[in-house]
Amino acid sequence: MMVIWIFKHEMKQLLKDRVAAGLLIALPLLFIWLFSLALGPHLNSDRFASKFEIALVDQDDTPGSRMLAQQFETSDYVKGYVKVDHTSEGSALELLRQDRIAGIVLIPAGFIDSVYAGTNKPLTFIANANTRAESDLIKNELTGAADLVSAGQSGIITVWRYTKWGGADQTLADKQFSAAVSSFTLASLARNNVFRLETVSGLPDVTWLEYFTAGLLAVFASFLGLRGVSSFQAERTAGMAQRLQASPLRPWQMVLGKFLALSLLIMGQLVLVVLVTGVMFHNYLGGSLAGMAVISAATAFAASALSLLAASLFHSAQAASLAGYAGSLLLAFAGGNIYPLVDLPEGVRKLSSFVFDRWSMDGFLRVFAGETFMRIAPDALVLLSISGVTLALAAGGYRLTGRRIR
Amino acid sequence: MKEIPQIIWFRLKLMLTDKALLAAILAAPLLLTLLLGGMQGYNKPKLIPVAVADQDKSDFSRLVIERLAAKEGLKVISSDEASARNMVQNYAAEAAFIIKKGFEAGILAGNADSSITIVKSPQSLAYGLIQDTLAGEVARISANTSAANWVSREFREYGLSIPGMSGDIWDSAWKYADSLWEPEPLLRLEYKEIQGSAVEEVKPVSLLQTVSTGMLLVFILLLAMFNSSWLIEEKSNSTLKRLIMVPGLLGKSFGANFVAVFLAACGQTALFEICTRLLFGPAPEPFGPKYLVISAYVFGAASFGMLLSAWARSLAQLQAAAAPLVLFTSFIGGCFWGFLDPPPLLRLLSLFTPQGWALHSLLGILAGTSSLREEMATAAVLVSTGIISLAVAYLGVGRSVRAL
User: Fold this and answer.
1) How far apart are alpha carbons A28 and A220 in whole angstroms?
2) Are A156 and B222 in contact (CB under 8 A)?
3) B142 closest CA partner among A118, A403, A193
4) Does B26 share its domain with B74?
5) Same domain, yes or no: B52 and B113
6) Which of A350, B60, B189, B339 is the most exposed place for a label (fewest CB within 10 A)?
7) pLDDT tens-digit series, residues A173-182
8) What is the greatest pairwise CA distance in chain A?
């Protein structure tokens, strides 16, 4: 009964400031949109390489050289990475001097004919020393391409010379030569058959908006939880805590009442934000409803338990509030809710296992990825365990501060 | 006039009594700096890391890896398959090349299809170019082997032989094919290097410097907002009402309290600077311009704190509004993503926040790309908006106290 009374009182207090309550729904939406705008492109960017441009000067200008250039440009891994400007040597040099390109590939006049004839006019690459990383990549790529030609030619030459040295007549030598040309050319063209491509990702298969919705739900749950801190502090400053010490109300009843009220409010916030983002940002909501309910409840428990712990540790409203916000921010960064865990140092990644924000985000990401209840449940279980430990610490802290008040 | 220093001293003493608040305000930005400063993937490294797992452990696989490792611009990291995959998944490597068991046997048999697995992330851009580089090396070994197989088979089928040749024909053909690569391959790449001249001299700004600057700006504003709560307390306990009875005292109290908030923020900046220098080493930025911008920002922050406190009706309202407002404007201002290249819309929005102006200028000072004129302009914007905020706050306080 005592617990229900506290619960009702807390709900009344928490819902009193309607503007602030409204902001706690509006702000997450604004933040999710802003985060997607600012950090979304980073999530989808390469951590080691950046897009760049090169110039191609085709002085050969034959169907063969044009096909060679086209093959390079249209390959899957070049499109969207290396932009090739077809230009003259003079313009290309000007572009390089202006630092607008990483290098110039020069196909000399008569190049294709020289390859067929085996005289091989060399390809030229003029690198920009200011863009070493990019020009090294192109140099390696061109060396690799030239090696394919060298490999084919060395095979053909070996077959031809050994056939002749072995004493074969001209007919057999010619036959072997033709067969070797076609065989080694085909082998060069099939150079990529040796590879099998696999794609793995440390990031879940969701949209940026879904990603940041999942990440920021825990953050805003923490912010709402801080209103519970204010409620504690208000009671302290008004002397109500001392009066309650004299009542038959036990510390655990006090903590449980506040905890339940706050949890319910946070859960309401989470569900509302999830539903609104589903409509506004088209976040996927077709997955497990039970999973969404469980992860929302577990997040709400964890956030309110944490706020009660903060309230029991700090005496002034200002310190508790400031430490609460700073702490929430810290936990959000440590949990990988702002920047992905894969970008954080190894130590922080390990530490994140103890941070509720991480598990909440993980659970909501699974919801948005349409995973089943059984896949979401482990995250909820971890969150409940964290809540239990935090709540026990909060009760202990409250008991201690209660003694100090007495 | 002697009451002004007294009020300043009294307010500073009150602020200093809350040790937990002081600890939180100092520890939080330092912890956040440590956390964000350690992030990876925001400064592109000079060498692209590539993981290689050799499951074949043959002469051919070793040769291919050795030649790949000799290429410029790549950092080849040898590991096992699981670690290599993990490195790609965690963005510690651009791609992983797993040379499967049976690679050499496949090449010898003339069919090495799918014997190297490339593991890449969806974001990987350079994997294809590295794959082509490796393909060139595999092609060299494959061509040698195919030629040796061809010659060996041909000699057997047609009964050919080289007079006076001792030893295995396969070995001989393989070595001959490989010898055609020395002293240089049959098709050469002529390499030249030119230095572009339009490079602007920019000092690299480390992630740690960028993050610590952003965090300092966030927490200066946060502390200024929280420390301005005296206005609400004195409004609600009628102190301001009593002050208004003495002509000029409200103005003096307001000014003195503002100075105290300003000094507290200066003290916080100094402490943070000392701690960051002790923890992360001395910063090489020019002293004067940096502290000109920071002082103007602190002035602006203290003024905005007064404005918010003049608007808030209760302490709870101030606490509910201050932190979200600071975090929101700090985010727009770039304090949490100053090391990224923002989209144009966000860059524009950042100029509507004091943090955006200050951060842009401070990062410019660190990079050596900012001029004194730009720094003066930033300081002028911050101070003038601060003066306007302060005037509005004072007028608001006067009106609300008179209405009481």
Assistant:
1) 7
2) no
3) A193
4) no
5) yes
6) A350
7) 999 999 999 9
8) 115
What 3-state class would DSSP assign to B162?
coil
- Boundary (domain end) residue, out of B160, B195, B224: B160
Task: Based on the fold, state whether residues B274 and B139 are members of the same structural domain.
Answer: no
Write out the two tokens for A384: 């409940």
**Cβ distance A316 to A237 under 8 Å?**
no
Is B197–A48 a contact, with Cβ atoms under 8 angstroms apart? Answer: no
Residues in chain A: 406
The verdict on residue B109 lying in a domain is yes
d(C-alpha A122, C-alpha B59), whole Å: 30
**pLDDT band per the 50, 70, 90 thresholds, residue A107:** very high
Chain B residue with Cα closest to A146: B187
Query: Are the C-beta atoms of residues A235 and B123 closer than 8 Å to each other?
Result: no
Domain that holds residue B307: 3-41+204-402
Burial class (CB in 10 A: 0-12, 13-18, 19+), A246: exposed
Q: Which residues of B touch A125 (CB under 8 A)?
A: 189-192
Closest to A46 (Cβ–Cβ): which among B40, B125, B189?
A: B125
- The answer to whether the Cβ–Cβ distance between B187 and A115 falls below 8 Å is yes
A255 close to A395: Cβ distance less than 8 angstroms? yes
Interatomic CA distance for residues B300 and B383, integer angstroms = 6
Contact A127, A139 (CB under 8 A): yes
- Please state the domain count of chain B: 2
**Closest Cα in chain A, distance from residue B383 (Å):** 26
Q: Does A145 sit within 8 Å of B139, measured CB to CB?
A: no
β-bridge partners, A158: none
- Name, in order, each residue with C-beta under 8 angstroms of A112's C-beta and a sequence gap of 6 or more: A60, A62, A64, A65, A68
Both tokens of residue B183? 């002293």
pLDDT band at A238 (very low <50, low <70, confident <90, very high): low
B116 Cβ neighbours under 8 A, 6+ residues apart: A194, A195, A196, B97, B98, B99, B100, B103, B134, B138
User: Per residue in B362-389, is it b (16+ CB within 10 Å) or e — as a string?
Assistant: bbbbbbeebeeebbeebbebbbebbeeb
Secondary structure of residue A5 in the 3-state scheme: helix
B258 and B311 together in one domain: yes
**pLDDT at res. A3:** 59
Among A13, A130, A147, A321, pick the best mutation site for testing chain B contact (most B Cβ within 10 A). Answer: A147
Interface test with B, best of A318, A330, A333, A349 (most B CBs within 10 A): A318
Banded model confidence at residue A405, pLDDT cuts 50, 70, 90: very low
Closest C-alpha among B38, B43, B73 to residue B202: B43
Q: Is position B196 within any domain? A: no
Residues B213 and B348 reside in one and the same domain: yes
Among B104, B132, B160, give the residue marking a domain's end: B160
Asked whether residue B194 is domain-assigned, the answer is: no
B353: in domain: yes
Task: Please indicate, yes or no, whether residues B120 and B257 belong to a single structural domain of this protein.
Answer: no
pLDDT of residue A237: 63
Taking an 8 Å cut-off on Cβ atoms, the answer to whether A151 and B140 are in contact is yes
B248 and B394 fall within a common domain: yes
What is the mean pLDDT of each successive set of 10 residues along chain B, which is 404 residues long?
80 80 82 82 80 96 95 94 93 94 94 93 90 92 95 93 87 95 92 73 74 92 86 80 79 87 90 86 71 93 90 77 86 87 85 93 87 91 94 87 71
CA nearest neighbour of A68 among A101, A21, A20, A116: A116
DSSP assignment of A170-210: HHHHHHHHHHHHHHHHHHHHTGGGGEEEEE--SS-SS-HHH
Out of A93-102, A366-375, B24-33, B101-110, least confident range: B24-33
Give the CATH number of the domain where residue B145 resides. Answer: 3.40.1710.10
Please state the ipTM of this predicted complex: 0.77
Same domain membership, residue B393 and residue B266:
yes
